[in-house]
């Protein structure tokens, strides 16, 4: 067996820089081969983006179809257009009817107010005559003919909602009584009507004229 020589063995080993250069050259060659497209059976490589175009085609067609259907929905059919016009006419009719009802109610209220004003004017003009009739009734007996006329006048005012009020003995109410005199009364426990000088008249809750009365007041 030959003797092992260490110096000869070290001289035969490859240099470290040479090994690194060989590895770098081999890696570059592998990257170049990987970047080249694979050839088909006829030797032609598939062009980049060929598969992508085939995949995007159906999506584009589907998007175009949706756009077309949306445009179609915006256009009403003759039946749909007729229904829409009928709904518009019905809405306009209901609005006009509501306005007419409001106008009719306002007109009715105005007529009632004008009618009431007319009755008040007539009643106010006849108040002196009505007061004279009441005084005659109180102090003397009316003959049959005059009594019939007075009764007709009372019924006529009742027909138009005129109410006469003011009675002896009722409690004094300043909202409907006008006290022309206060008379002390030892028997009175509260202010009461002792004498009705002129009767009061009202229509509903509206007092046309307060009853003019003499009030019996309790003594202090």
From TrEMBL:
CDD domains the UniProt entry points to: GrpE
Keyword Chaperone applies: yes
InterPro entries in alphabetical order: GrpE, GrpE_CC, GrpE_head
Chief location: cytoplasm
Renumbered residue ranges of the record's region Disordered: 1-90
GO cellular component: cytoplasm
Gene3D superfamilies attached to this UniProt entry: 3.90.20.20, Head domain of nucleotide exchange factor GrpE
GO biological process per UniProt: protein folding
SUPFAM superfamilies: Coiled-coil domain of nucleotide exchange factor GrpE, Head domain of nucleotide exchange factor GrpE
Protein's name in the database: Protein GrpE
Organism listed in the record: Bifidobacterium aemilianum
